[in-house]
Amino acid sequence: MERIERNKYLNWLLRWREQKIIKVVSGVRRCGKSTLFEIYRDQLLANGVDARQIIALNFEDVELEHLTNYRALYDHITLLLLPDKMNYIFLDEIQHVTQFEKTVDSLFLKPNCDVYITGSNAYFMSGELATLLSGRYVELRMLPLSFKEFCSGLPEGTQGISKAEKFNLYMEIGSFPYTAQFAERKHEAKEYLRGIYHTVLLKDIVARLKIPDVNSLENVTKFLFHNIGSRVSPKKIADTLKSQGKGADQKTVDKYIRGLTESLILYEASRYNIKGRQFLTTQSKYYAVNVGLRNMLVRVRESDQGHLLENIVFLELIRRGYKVYVGQLDDGEVDFVAIGVDTTVYFQVAASTLDDKTLKRELAPLKRITDNYPKILLTLDEVFGTVDYEGIQKQNVLEWLLE
Fold it and tell me: How many CA atoms lie less than 13 Å away from 269 in the CB half-sphere?
C-alpha cells in the first residue's frame, strides 16, 4: 500500500526538529501516527542523518514487551545512543510502558536526544500529560484523512471517477488512511472499521473506565452516532434509552460520553452565545471522528446527508486550526463558529439551497449576526466561484474542502 503524504503534519515535525522540547503526536487509533513517523524518519535520512542516529520503538509489537518497564527501556536506549551526534528517538504507543514519563524526562535532559512520542488514549495524552511531562512538550493532534488526502490515496482504478463520486466514497467508507485502498471493496472497508470500533470500545474505554455493561455503552454510542449534529444532553440520552427499554442512568451516560470523547472517537462541539460572547455548558452537539464509523453502526438514510456533511466540515475546521463551536442566537442557531488565532468565521452547512425556502432559512441566522467577520454558506450545489448574498458567501463544499 502506497503511503499517503500528510504534509501539514510532517511540516509540524520538521518545524520542531531538534528544538529542546518533547514532541507528542496524539490521535484516535489508526489515524496514521506511526506512518507519519516513518515518513519523517525517511525525510531525516534523505537529509543526511545516519540511520544509527534513529531509535524507533513501537510498543504494540509484542517483541518489545520486555521494554515496557521504564528502567529497562531507558537502559536499552542509552546503550544505543551515539555520544557525539544528535539522536532521534521515536516511542510509538508509549502508554504501554509503565511510568514511561521517567524514561522520557530522563532522555529529555540529555543534550543530544530529540524525543518524539505517540499515544492513542486521549485521557493519558491530554488529561495526564501536562502533569507527567511537567509542561516540557508540544502536542500535535492528528485526525484521519482530509478529503484532499483521501483523494490522493485512492487506488489507481478509482482515480478517473468524478470529484462528486470520490466524495460519496469518502462519506461512505470514511477517512482512516487504510480504508482508501478499499474504495472498490466496500464490504472489506466496513469489516476494517468494525475492528477499529471494537478495539477503541474495549481497550480505550471499557478496560480503562472499568465499565461492566458493554451493551449499555454500545447503546449510548449508537445513540450519539445516530444523532450527530443534534443537541443532546446526558439526561436526554438516558430518558430516550429508558423509554426504549435500554436504560442507563444520567451519571452513567455522562461517564460513557467522557470515555467516547477521551478516546477521540467522538468530538464535542459546545455552544457559544454569539451576542454575549459566552461559552455555554449545556446541550452540546457531538460529531464522529470518522463518518465511515458512524455509517458502519447506523443505517444511513437520505435525510442524514446534511448531518454527515456537517460532520465532515466540523473535522476540517479542526484540521485548519480552529476551535469550533455551535453558534447560539436569541432566536436561532449558526452551525459553526470557528475561532482562530486572529479571526472568527461563521458557517452554515446544507446539502442544497436551490429551493428558495431552504436558502432563506439557511441565510437567516447569518444575517442576524451584526459583526464584520466572514460568513460562509457551504453546500453541495454546483457553484461557479463564490456567490454573494449581502456579504454572505455561498461556496461549493467540495471546492472548499480541496482548498
Answer: 30
